């Protein structure tokens, strides 16, 4: 009986010690991750903040030239051919990328040699205009494979930033991708 009781007490001791160690390691890991996230966010720079409803026009490069979209009476139209019916939701989703443009970090203040970053002849120029009369231009340069980001400038200021590739990939839709989809009832009746 004493042997069973002693074995049970020792087992319970190890179980309690294991649970305490588990919670200590979990807490340490969580704190470490929070500190790393805070450090990453500490370097971020907000380049542009706009209200979604204020965006009235934007453009980005497509395979056959710039794609420009204009909002009139809460409806988006393709500037080059206003007869194309666009999905307002799809176009608005792209426009909403301009509401909060956050760079991972500042690379260089007042850069002297923009060719170093591919910004002397940018690979992409994004333009957005608002109902308040403002127009902002974001230039996208070379891809930095180490960080997975693109070099960028805003409004011709020569400060160079790193923008996440997720931001630039938002501007890859063609006009065909943005067309209003056929009504599923029409498609099923054929």
Automatic annotation (TrEMBL):
Among Pfam families, the record links this protein to: DUF4340
Q: Where is the composition biased (Basic and acidic residues)?
A: 176-190
Q: Which organism is it from?
A: Acetitomaculum ruminis DSM 5522
Q: What is this protein called?
A: DUF4340 domain-containing protein
- InterPro entries, A to Z: DUF4340 (IPR025641)
Q: Where is this region: Disordered?
A: 168-190
Describe the location of the DUF4340 domain by residue ranges: 76-180
């Amino acid at each position: 009986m004493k042997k069973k009781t002693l074995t049970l007490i020792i087992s319970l001791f190890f179980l309690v010690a294991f649970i305490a160690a588990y919670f200590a390691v979990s807490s340490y890991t969580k704190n470490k991750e929070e500190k790393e996230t805070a450090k990453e966010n500490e370097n971020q720079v907000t380049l542009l903040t706009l209200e979604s409803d204020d965006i009235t026009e934007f453009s980005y490069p497509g395979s056959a030239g710039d794609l420009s979209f204009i909002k009139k009476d809460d409806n988006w139209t393709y500037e080059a051919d206003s007869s194309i019916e666009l999905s307002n939701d799809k176009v608005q989703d792209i426009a909403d990328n301009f509401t909060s443009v956050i760079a991972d970090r500042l690379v260089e203040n007042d850069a002297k040699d923009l060719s170093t970053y591919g910004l002397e002849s940018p690979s992409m120029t994004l333009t957005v205009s608002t109902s308040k009369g403002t127009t902002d231009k974001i230039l996208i340069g070379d891809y930095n494979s180490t960080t997975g980001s693109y070099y960028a400038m805003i409004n011709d200021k020569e400060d160079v930033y790193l923008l996440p590739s997720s931001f630039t990939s938002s501007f890859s839709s063609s006009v065909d991708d943005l067309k209003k989809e056929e009504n599923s009832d029409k498609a099923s009746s054929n």
